[in-house]
Amino acid sequence: MAKHEHVRVAVIGSGFGGIGAAVRLRREGITDFVVLERADSVGGAWRDNSYPGCACDVPSHLYSFSFAPNPDWPRTFSGQRHIRAYLEHVTDTFGIRPHLRLNHEMLRAEWDAEALRWEIETSGGTFSAEVLISAAGPLSDPQIPDIPGLADFPGKVFHSARWDHDYDLRGKRVAMVGTGASAIQIVPEIQREVGRLTLFQRTPPWVMPRMDRSISGAERWLHRTLPATATLRRGLLWGIRELQVGAFTKHPNELGLVEKLAKANIARSIKDPELRAKLTPSYRIGCKRILLSNTYYPALAQPNVDVVASGLREVRGSTVIAADGTETEVDAIVFGTGFHVTDIPIASRVVGAEGHTLAESWKDGVKVLRGATAGGFPNLMMIIGPNTGLGNSSMILMIESQLNYMADYLRQIDILGGRTALAVRPSAVNAWNRKVQSRMERTVWKAGGCNSWYLDANGRNTTLWPGTTAEFRRETRQVDLSEYEVIRAPRPAPAPKPEPAPKSARTSRKKETAK
């Protein structure tokens, strides 16, 4: 076990949120920090998700930091390899390597109310920090449903975010469970090589064409030579998506035209009316994330693919059984069943001022202020926290807004001086969440007629932001100290004054001095 290390700031995670936080700390003149990463390299979700076909559904020039533009994106929608390489490049360019503590999984973090600091236990050593930044992200821990008999399945089982590249799928009978963003990228890639592919679909997604292409050498030269052109490109991409927000958050019926286009996309590729019916959603488009693919529907129409319009219910030996009773013999099961988003595991490892975990404090529902701070957890901040997700734009925009808030949070602590902590007031948390949830009621995510991973067990959308990225930027530009209680370390008691010497002794000392 490594020796104990004390720092001003400890950051958990090295994906876009963690690396962004590290860069911002250095730009603010703060170098006394560490980035705790459980894996052996940076990258977060873009390191973990290396499945065939993995790519981003946000345009490349918008899916990058504004302070680290990349003029050399090879495609309009970049793949996993290039995004991961970009994060490695940012890590090197901004001098983050010395701050990394790789293979340091955060096991427990506990607030020390007397010392006003976080005591952190990791798999590689112990740390203490005045401020803890959780940038673990909601797409960190894969979720595999509890399927009876799965433990006894004799074949291969893995999640899309833990792809087994040593397992050869060629000629195999494969069950793909789930139809989310990962699945629609995986299916076309493996359909060409497997013997038979059975897709278990509980709810069909809406899928629109993916307007992807190679970015020409001339475009890249122009962006390198005239950086303002890349800034303009990014601005146009951002503006188009900002204009779309109202349809998602205020007027879901305006999405009807988009829905017609999506139905036409199905009809172009799926000629079989029975299969087309299976693949046509019954909920308003946008209620779940709209997915982008030119190859998903054509792959499902191939003769070696079966679509089971039902979830996986049970596994008996090598037989997988759907909820509708369909039985299929398979050699491998691949789960594309998402992540622990509304029940993030790291919440059970963070212990606050009152001795309970973040998960325990959220037992009646997740609540934070501005996606960043939780009641009872002083000097804890979250990057990509609750209600900061987006349904149609780039999360990097939201991350950078939260980095602004983080920077001002640290400035306020400096201004207050001494050993100081900020504890968000419960009244501020409640007021913020009432406003967010009130606005959420008229969004397509609540009124669109679907049950998505955006919703928690109580049906509350604690994942997405019901507004524009510009509005969120305004809401997180600076810390409002009226929303926080300032906690100061108790001053040490003054040393007792020495008792005056007896009069005879004072007289004696005076005589000695005179001599």
UniProtKB/TrEMBL annotation:
Keywords: FAD, Flavoprotein, Monooxygenase, NADP, Oxidoreductase
Transmembrane segments annotated in the record for this chain: none
InterPro entries given in the database record: FAD-bind_Monooxygenase_sf, FAD/NAD-bd_sf, Flavin_mOase-like
Cofactor: FAD
GO molecular function, one term: flavin adenine dinucleotide binding
Segments for region (Disordered): 483-515
Pfam families xrefs: FMO-like
Domain of life of the native organism: Bacteria
Biased composition (Pro residues): 491-501
Family of this protein: Belongs to the FAD-binding monooxygenase family.
Function according to Swiss-Prot or TrEMBL: Catalyzes a Baeyer-Villiger oxidation reaction, i.e. the insertion of an oxygen atom into a carbon-carbon bond adjacent to a carbonyl, which converts ketones to esters or lactones using NADPH and/or NADH as an electron donor. Thus, can convert bicyclo[3.2.0]hept-2-en-6-one into the oxidative lactone products 2-oxabicyclo[3.3.0]oct-6-en-3-one and 3-oxabicyclo[3.3.0]oct-6-en-2-one. Is also able to catalyze the sulfoxidation of methyl phenyl sulfide (thioanisole).
Protein name: Baeyer-Villiger monooxygenase
